[in-house]
């Protein structure tokens, strides 16, 4: 057997026996994905600590190319790569004044960046593992699930054979909006080796027996393994010793980890807070370690992990006894659940929080966050502009009553910024701009220079977006220019500005902005796709094709890239390859109307008219408003000699999308049917758009034939 493997058995010792029966390339390495060890990227980080130092020594250029994903996934590598520069944070007056958090898909982009690094680093790496065994994947953080899903699809088994080990259940996709599915990747890219066995006796039953000789040593081994071992004997021994002995073991393990934490900071996101929370100072050092881990995960955009840490914390703290610490855990849980695409869970936590606090600032923040659920986070069918406005208005009302003038100014503007988003969602762009302009003026008037700079930039960024949406392109470009002057290291600024420059036809500048964005963020499909689209308009077919291929490498189901790639191949006179690309796209996105339309066009050009009509019928079944499909169907009817059907289809195409090419083709059909005045009108419309020698020639011919008819 060849390829990647998925080993399933209830316990690790059984998985080890199953794996021993599989012939695997050597040398091999084993890592543990249990999130209790190092939190996010427990498995990916372990692999990188094994391979990256030597790879970066051999190929130092990889440090510049992958510096973001290497240090964010594996902070131990920070000394080996350029540091991430965040100018806005460096210039903030106080810690915590900059709070721009990554997009939900940032961790998936990191996963792809890590796969890119391995694809570049492993081929010429002597002694590097050729088999990677990843244990405890059923306990993996979402970040490791994303990494493994990307690696299984993109890394050839000949380069690195992945052996994913789980219990007998299929790993569950995380709740909420899904970035990528590990279960789907396992099903598509692995051979499964499974041996279900009878479940062992519950640990609780064994733990109820009297303490036995050797229990202390067994429990110590369990704790030294960070309680990730599923050996029932160790679990039972751990439960049988006294609570005081367990606390002492956790304290001892925490002390060991603390001594390593400066050199291995990823421990602070997993094992260290785990043990401190079970040690003698769980309400002091334990909760502080948990709070730090939550803050760090939120800052890096590891939202599922942050939400899990926040849930743990808010249930450990009494809001009456330690209200500010409880609020930190609660607020960040709400924010991270929403950011992770889990708005219903965020809503439930917010409702619980409202019942537990009477602090005005808490209620102000909760009202704002609930408003954002209804404005942006809920799925479209649950979004509600009226409710969003009501909640944000409540936040504004509370902020306007705050006694401290600077706090009042900041929060009033902050909450009105949220109201501006509601106005955008309602299509009231002018009102959104008014709110943003007033907010910027108020901060300039009531706060000192340098105070809340991140929020001032955020307001201008939002104004740039609204200006762009409402067609005020030059105003948007002016805003982005000022933003980039003070916040030059954020990829979204360049990506968004590139889109405006494309619409204005300033394609070289757009390409430059997309390229800059790609240096400031791990690889993300949209930047490659947009750059490819701009390159195509510039006539760089080779560069465009490379960008579309790269887009699809990262996101195989990207519908626009699938269509653009297939269309470009068709234009390059590679119809067979184009048809293969269309077929691949339809496997990823069945029923995609524009792909079906292109398939119909290509089949028609090959003379496969029955298949072409079938594809076009499917395209119009998916999208009856697709003008291109009506136009292609009109071309097929013309080729069949059915001029009446052809004219009907072209009439519909022009009605849906009055384009010069549709007018030209309809003019040709009118000409063939003897409808010379109508043909002349269509050719006139073509010539108004651009000079077209054939349209002019046909127009003159129709005028002559019409004159001849009148003379006869």
Layout of strands and helices, then pairs:
Blueprint: E1 4-8, H1 12-20, E2 28-32, H2 35-38, H3 42-58, H4 61-65, H5 67-73, H6 87-90, H7 106-121, E3 131-135, H8 142-154, E4 161-166, H9 182-189, E5 190-194, H10 203-207, H11 215-224, H12 232-240, H13 243-261, H14 271-276, H15 282-300, H16 303-316, H17 323-339, H18 343-354, H19 360-377, H20 385-399, H21 405-425, H22 429-446, H23 453-469, H24 473-486, H25 491-503, H26 507-519, H27 525-537, H28 541-554, H29 559-571, H30 575-588, H31 593-605, H32 609-622, H33 627-639, H34 643-656, H35 660-673, H36 676-689, H37 693-711
Parallel strand pairs: 1-4, 1-5, 2-3, 3-4
Helix pairs in contact: 5-7, 7-8, 8-9, 11-12, 11-13, 15-16, 15-17, 16-17, 17-18, 17-19, 18-19, 19-20, 19-21, 20-21, 21-22, 21-23, 22-23, 23-24, 24-25, 25-26, 26-27, 27-28, 28-29, 29-30, 29-31, 30-31, 31-32, 31-33, 32-33, 33-34, 33-35, 34-35, 35-36, 36-37
Strand order of the largest sheet: 2-3-4-1-5
Quaternary structure type? single chain
Mean pLDDT: 93
Give the DSSP E fraction (strand runs of 2 or more residues). Answer: under 5%
Helix count from the secondary structure assignment: 37
The low-confidence parts are none
Shape: globular
Helix percentage:
55-70%
The tally of beta strands, per DSSP, is: 5
Determine Rg (CA atoms, Å).
31 Å
């Amino acid at each position: 057997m060849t390829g990647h493997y998925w080993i399933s058995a209830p316990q690790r010792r059984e998985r080890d026996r199953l794996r021993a029966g599989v012939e695997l390339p050597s040398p091999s390495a084993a890592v543990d994905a249990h999130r209790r060890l190092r939190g996010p990227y427990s498995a990916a980080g372990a692999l990188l600590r094994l391979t990256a130092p030597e790879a970066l020594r051999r190929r130092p250029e990889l440090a510049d190319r992958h510096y973001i994903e290497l240090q964010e996934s594996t902070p131990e590598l920070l000394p080996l790569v350029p540091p991430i520069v965040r100018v806005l944070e460096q210039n903030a007056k106080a810690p915590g004044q900059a709070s721009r958090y990554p997009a939900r898909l940032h961790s998936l982009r990191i996963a792809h960046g890590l796969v890119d690094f391995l694809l570049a680093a492993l081929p010429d790496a002597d002694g590097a593992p050729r088999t990677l065994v990843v244990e405890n994947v059923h306990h993996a953080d979402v970040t490791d699930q994303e990494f493994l899903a990307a690696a299984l699809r993109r890394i050839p088994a000949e380069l690195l054979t992945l052996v994913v080990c789980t219990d007998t259940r299929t790993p569950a996709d995380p709740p909420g909006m899904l970035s990528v599915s590990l279960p789907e990747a396992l099903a598509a890219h692995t051979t499964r080796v499974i041996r279900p066995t009878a479940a062992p006796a519950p640990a609780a039953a064994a733990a109820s027996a009297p303490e036995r000789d050797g229990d202390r040593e067994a429990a110590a081994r369990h704790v030294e393994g960070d309680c990730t071992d599923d050996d029932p004997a160790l679990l039972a021994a751990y439960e049988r010793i006294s609570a005081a002995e367990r606390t002492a073991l956790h304290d001892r393990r925490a002390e060991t980890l603390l001594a390593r934490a400066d050199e291995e900071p990823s421990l602070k996101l997993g094992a260290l807070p785990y043990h401190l929370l079970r040690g003698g100072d769980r309400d002091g050092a334990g909760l502080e370690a948990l709070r730090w881990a939550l803050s760090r995960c939120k800052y890096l955009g590891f939202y599922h992990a942050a939400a899990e840490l926040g849930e743990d914390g808010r249930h450990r703290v009494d809001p009456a006894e330690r209200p500010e610490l409880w609020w930190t855990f609660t607020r960040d849980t709400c924010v991270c659940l929403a950011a992770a695409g889990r708005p219903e869970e965020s809503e439930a936590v917010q409702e619980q929080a409202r019942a537990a606090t009477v602090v005005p600032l808490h209620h102000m923040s909760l009202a704002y966050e609930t408003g954002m659920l209804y404005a942006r986070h809920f799925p479209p069918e649950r979004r509600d502009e009226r409710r969003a406005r009501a909640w944000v208005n409540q936040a504004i009302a509370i902020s306007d009553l705050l006694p401290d003038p600077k706090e009042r100014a900041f929060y009033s503007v902050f909450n009105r910024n949220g109201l501006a988003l509601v106005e955008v969602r309602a299509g009231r762009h002018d009102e959104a701009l008014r709110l943003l302009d007033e907010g910027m003026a108020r901060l300039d008037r009531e706060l000192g220079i340098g105070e809340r700079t991140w929020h001032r930039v955020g307001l201008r960024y939002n104004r740039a977006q609204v200006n762009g949406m409402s067609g005020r392109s030059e105003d948007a470009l002016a805003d982005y220019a000022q933003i980039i002057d003070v916040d030059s290291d954020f990829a979204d600024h360049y990506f968004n500005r590139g889109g405006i420059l494309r619409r204005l036809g300033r394609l070289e500048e757009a390409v430059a902005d997309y390229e800059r964005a790609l240096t400031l963020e791990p690889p993300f499909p949209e930047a490659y796709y947009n750059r490819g689209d701009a390159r195509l308009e510039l006539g760089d077919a080779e560069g465009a094709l490379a960008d579309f291929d790269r887009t699809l490498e990262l996101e195989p189901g990207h519908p626009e890239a699938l269509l653009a790639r297939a269309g470009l191949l068709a234009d390059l006179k590679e119809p067979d390859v184009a048809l293969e690309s269309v077929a691949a796209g339809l496997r990823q996105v069945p029923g995609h109307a524009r792909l079906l339309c292109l398939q119909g066009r290509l089949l028609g050009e090959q003379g496969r008219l029955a298949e072409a009509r079938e594809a076009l019928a499917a395209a119009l079944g998916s999208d009856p408003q697709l003008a291109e499909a009506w136009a292609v169907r009109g071309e097929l009817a013309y080729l069949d000699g059915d001029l009446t059907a052809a004219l009907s289809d072209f009439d519909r195409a022009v009605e849906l999308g009055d384009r010069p090419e549709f007018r030209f083709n309809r003019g040709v059909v009118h000409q063939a049917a003897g409808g010379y005045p109508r043909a002349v009108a269509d050719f006139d419309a073509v010539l108004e758009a651009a000079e077209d020698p054939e349209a002019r020639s046909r127009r003159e011919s129709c005028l002559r034939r019409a004159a001849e008819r009148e003379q006869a």
